[in-house]
Amino acid sequence: MSESPERDALLALMVRTPDEPGVLHALTSVFLKHRANITHVDIAERRVDSSTVYFELEDVSAPDALIGDLESLPIVRAVERAPSFQKVYGKRIIVVGGGAQVGQVVVGAVAEADRHNIRGEKISVDTIPLVGEEELAAATRAVARLPRAVALVLAGALMGGEVARAVYEIREKGIIVLSLNMPGSVPDAADLVVSDPVQCGVMAVMAVSESASFDISRQRGRRY
Amino acid sequence: MSESPERDALLALMVRTPDEPGVLHALTSVFLKHRANITHVDIAERRVDSSTVYFELEDVSAPDALIGDLESLPIVRAVERAPSFQKVYGKRIIVVGGGAQVGQVVVGAVAEADRHNIRGEKISVDTIPLVGEEELAAATRAVARLPRAVALVLAGALMGGEVARAVYEIREKGIIVLSLNMPGSVPDAADLVVSDPVQCGVMAVMAVSESASFDISRQRGRRY
Fold first, then answer.
1. pTM for this predicted structure
2. Which of A85, B1, B20, B170 is the most exposed place for a label (fewest CB within 10 A)?
3. By CA distance, what is A148's nearest residue in B?
């Protein structure tokens, strides 16, 4: 990576090891020794003979010493610094639903995110086209455990039941939920209801942006 | 979660613990004992007094015994099974670029993914609107370490230099790269070049779909 990792608040590392049980246990012993807090882990690459694990760490007082300790583990083949996902992809808005509306929500969200990102923010828009109560509810619940996810837009023409229950659950966990205006109990469960799909996508970005003067707490329960 | 996790090939677990150094090290000791392979880890939730870690494990022969061993650790407050991200969100296509084109690529990709997902596939479309050579190159390189990412679409009006080098690097790592037709060296570096942004999004989905009779290896180097 050509970028300077010093600009990150986090220390982001790619660690190449053999693909075998016990690797993560050995690596985390080094983080424990350095009292580093792991905020993100991923198996970034799995090959037949090797595996690359990606870590984001905070509270690292001596990054070079930590990297040196990793490199001295027998299982470690290489350690490389990388820019963090938070820095590269930023906050995530998740759009879930089906049909014509979901594409139009994304057009609004992507156009608005483009305008914010040009001015230095980092907002991504992730879309999973889906139908069916069970699948929508599972996708809704999973948003709460997606890294960097801050808002969900439900874009469909009928959503309720288990999906509405999932909406209440993830709102409890701090996710902002927007819904198109539609039949079913999901609009009542959402923070904000917007009828036009492009406008709904735009408002989702405004709700999570740091630069927009749009306060979701003042909009809660409203319908546009 | 109301879904049966037995249908997953992977064992997916949410583990609630205090937010303190050493947690991951303690948890992985249980996985090591069970010779379970960790394919995904995330810090799903961080609160003042607790943290929830999400794991996807494979090669687990006795899931109930493994969960029991986790629960008997003093730091573990709760263990819950969950459907895996692979099952909920599936493969990811990443769209990177700026301006009018990026939204149109996403319209094509989301509409096509909707058609595939209705028939049982799981394909997501993740978009980060971005401009600038350094930022585009970083976003391109990061695709290779994003979980479940299989293809990248570069949607802009001028991309080359460091971005093209990043394209070659991630193609080496198995990521399929599509590019709009544009000035700069990125189209030459990509697997496939498509002039119309909606068509480009559609083809990205076809290239990663299991059901489409579209073989990227036969299309490599072509321009449409």
1. 0.81
2. B20
3. B44
